[in-house]
Amino acid sequence: MLRSRITPCLLVHKKGLVKTVEFKEPKYVGDPLNAVKIFNEKEVDELIILDIDATIEGRGPDFNFIKNIAIESRMPLCYGGGITTVEQAKRIISLGVEKIALSSAAIENPQLLIEIGNAVGVQSVVVVLDVKKKGIFKNYEVFTHNGKRHIGKKLTDIVSTLNNIGVGEIVINSIDEDGKMNGYDFKLFELVRELTSCPLTILGGASSLEDIKQAIFKYKTLGVAAGSIFVFKGKYKAVLINYPDRITRNEIY
What we know:
alpha/beta, TIM Barrel, globular, 14 strands, 11 helices
């Protein structure tokens, strides 16, 4: 039986590690490579690194950066940012990255997911859906380009398409809860969970290990990702890379 994973999600902006609130006002919190070294020592389950500049700037992945991160990383690594072709995906996997994450490219061209899956293995293909409530009825809508572009497709239709294609994982990221540390949007997660049998990871809003424990207890096997709680400490949000030790994690699982 698969075990739940507790996964730090790191955002890279202008070569630095940042944390955002509702995808806005990126706050510098350190050097990505240094964070990876610390997470190595913490023996994290998995690490997600997202270059939030690549798609906005219309460029491809920074392969030199990815290579340096992959060489240093001793944990399973998922990388996303600027991936639009099969060749890019294959190169990233060849550098030692276990999973590649796509967002706008996958939504705009679902066929790309099939092609990448055939090239590197379906289990290595991750789709990140950035979702927020919109309109007077507060319907869940999918956005790309760091939450700036509303794609005009229903969340349910996108998830159904991904389910039919079959991807290795879907990350459900709440823009509304991003960086607020008010807890996960379980309503959003449950909506997606009913629509797909693909492995799911919930992201956005975790305030403590209790939130993670609640998510795992509620949904059993799933990925639980977070940003703020792994880079901040205390009510004043002092920057401190942290992660629960093995004993604590075993209690959470």
